[in-house]
Design brief:
This protein is an alpha/beta fold and 505 residues long. The protein folds into two domains: 214 residues, YjeF N-terminal domain (Rossmann fold, 3-Layer(aba) Sandwich); 260 residues, Ribokinase (UDP-N-acetylmuramoyl-L-alanine:D-glutamate ligase, 3-Layer(aba) Sandwich). It is built from 19 helices and 17 strands. It binds ligand NAX, adenosine-5'-diphosphate and potassium ion (K).
Length: 505
């Protein structure tokens, strides 16, 4: 799915109205109906208690007014509070007039803030994507009053006060919604950790925005779901053999962290690799030969950490980093790898920390190298970010400057590409915030980068998505708290099976 800006979303609304030869009022009715259906499918009139619709002066307020009318017609107990304003949108005014007289309506005022109890269900329709600056005055006071209450809050389209795709001053008033119900396409603001407390759980409702317009609209941001990946992973060829699927090399492990090597190795083996060789220090020999007999062990002469780079010419992808430590000799191995490798590289964990400490090495990164930092590792490669938007700027600059792909890990892992695009991943769960999950990802990505039939972009997208999806399938069995990184590897197989498409021709 594409992620559009607030301005593009507005254009998509207009294009839809034009293409259908309908009216903005009809589109509002459609959006609000979808919202009302969403709500009434979850809350019966008796469960909902008193519903308070807070309506602003624009079309977001208009959505709120339509919803109030529809809920009233369905037998819910609704009242409306309007935010006084000099100007109202045309569709707001139309729907204000359509509101049945039986629905109580009043103006908000500094002396007229509503009593909010835990039994009140508040529908936040103050502002949506039209917000152009932080809230102030009465709107800000109302939002603070709401946030201080125990009421349940569902926001329409955006939690009011939150900008759709730009940072805002710290401490500005933003509704802290339990749920945000938005339309058609996700918004950038939903995907950033700093907004989690405002957005709550978010949901998307289709409202039939014009497909052609969306397809034509240029964007540098995507939300990666199964649809976006359809057709990218081919079924294995009938006469395929281990040579068809690449020979990967992993450099992983050090004394006390051979487990990281085992996890990455298992993950690589479960992600379709043809052959796999693991370079690990001598101390890991018995462990890896026992835990992952399918992999060939190429043992470093040093007992505790990796000190020598093996001959590279037979490998189709090389992953380095999980559990390797930061010894000077290991750094030299990394430097030689960057100079000599012809195969695609995947760099993670301590390989990234070593790069951060020796930034001159960044100039050696071969084009299309894939780096997989979590935010702290990324900071070591760049600089501390002021906020999530700044971090994305740093990500774009880094990828463009070094012609590399960066998987910035998190709840919505963001893949940055050398041409400045962002792909936010949709799979994964908080259970994956456990030691070793990242090592598993390195193994998955190394396997896929070794598939000559996948582009660097598709390999990265498929790998990140599959890693999260396998984590989701695992969590269905183990629960989030019970999930350990090894569980993810066991569900990679079913995940890739889901992703494989088999066109008839
Ligand atoms: N036909 C359409 O365009 C559709 C619009 N929809 C709804 O319309 C919303 C967007 O509507 P609008 O573009 O009217 O924008 P909003 O309703 O989000 O807000 C715009 C109004 O707020 C004012 N404003 C902006 N920032 C302010 C601030 N900080 N303090 C005080 N006032 C401020 C603007 O001058 C304008 O009057 C969407 O979020 C969605 O809820 C949906 O009904 C789908 C269809
Ligand atoms: N809340 C979350 N939701 C989804 N995925 C998550 C969440 N927390 C962590 N993950 C995923 O788990 C992995 C953790 O990697 P990392 O931080 O490198 O862990 P480690 O170094 O312990 O292996 C990343 O792929 C990340 O996207
Ligand atoms: K809102």
């Amino acid at each position: 799915m594409k992620i559009l800006t607030a301005a593009q979303t507005h254009q998509a609304d207009q294009a839809t109205i034009q293409a259908e030869n309908s009216s903005s009022d009809a589109l509002m009715e459609r959006a609000a109906t979808a919202f009302t259906d969403w709500l009434t499918n979850r809350q019966l009139p008796t469960e909902a208690g008193e519903i308070l619709v807070l309506a602003g002066p624009g079309n977001n307020g208009g959505d709120g007014l339509v919803t109030a009318r529809q809920l009233h017609q369905c037998g819910y107990q609704v009242r409306v509070l309007l935010l006084p304003a000099e100007k109202h949108s045309a569709d707001f005014t139309t729907n204000r007039q359509r509101l049945p007289a039986a629905v109580p309506v009043a103006d908000l005022g500094p002396e007229n803030l509503p009593a909010l109890t835990p039994a009140t269900l508040v529908i936040d329709a103050l502002f949506g994507t039209g917000l152009s600056r932080p809230l102030e005055g009465l709107a800000a006071t109302m939002v603070q009053h709401l946030n201080a209450s125990q009421s349940r809050v569902v926001a329409i389209d955006m939690p009011s006060g939150l900008l759709t795709d730009a940072p805002q001053p710290k401490d500005s008033a933003v509704v802290r919604a339990h749920h945000t119900v938005s339309f058609e396409l996700p918004k950038l603001a939903f995907l950033l950790p700093q907004n989690a407390g405002f957005v709550g759980e978010w949901h998307l409702l289709p409202i039939g925005l014009n497909r052609e317009f969306i397809a034509q609209t240029e964007t540098a941001m995507y939300f990666v779901d199964a649809t976006l990946l359809a057709g990218k992973l081919p079924k294995r060829a009938k006469f395929g053999h281990k040579g068809t699927y690449g020979h990967a090399l992993l450099l992983a492990g050090s004394k006390g962290k051979i487990g990281a090597a085992v996890l990455a190795t298992k993950a690589c083996l479960h992600s379709g690799v043809g052959l796999l060789t693991l370079r690990t220090p001598a101390i890991g020999y018995d462990v890896v030969q026992t835990a992952v007999p399918e992999a060939m062990a190429l043992i470093d002469p040093h007992p505790d950490f990796i000190t020598e780079l093996p001959e590279l010419k037979s490998y189709s992808a090389i992953g380095m980093g999980p559990g390797i430590g930061q010894e000077a000799a290991t750094k030299e191995v990394l430097a030689r790898l960057l100079r000599e490798a012809k195969a695609p590289l995947v760099l993670d964990a301590d390989a990234l920390n070593l790069l951060g400490q020796n930034r001159d090495l960044l100039a050696l990164l071969p084009p299309d190298t894939l780096l997989t930092p979590h935010p702290k590792e990324f900071e070591r490669l760049t600089e501390p970010a002021r906020d999530d938007y700044h971090r994305l700027e740093l990500l774009r600059t880094f990828c463009q400057q070094h012609r590399c792909y960066v998987v910035l890990k998190g709840a919505y892992t963001c893949l940055g590409t050398p041409d400045g695009q962002f792909y936010f991943n949709s799979t994964g769960n908080p259970g994956m915030g456990t030691g070793g999950s990242g090592d598993v990802l390195t193994g998955v990505l190394t396997a896929l980068r070794g598939h000559s039939f996948l582009s660097p972009l598709d390999a990265a997208l498929l790998g990140v998505y599959a890693h999260g999806r396998a984590g989701d399938l695992a969590a269905q069995q183990t629960g989030e708290a019970g999930l350990s990184a090894g569980d993810i590897t066991r569900f990679l197989g079913p995940t890739f099976q889901e992703l494989i498409t088999q066109p008839l021709f």
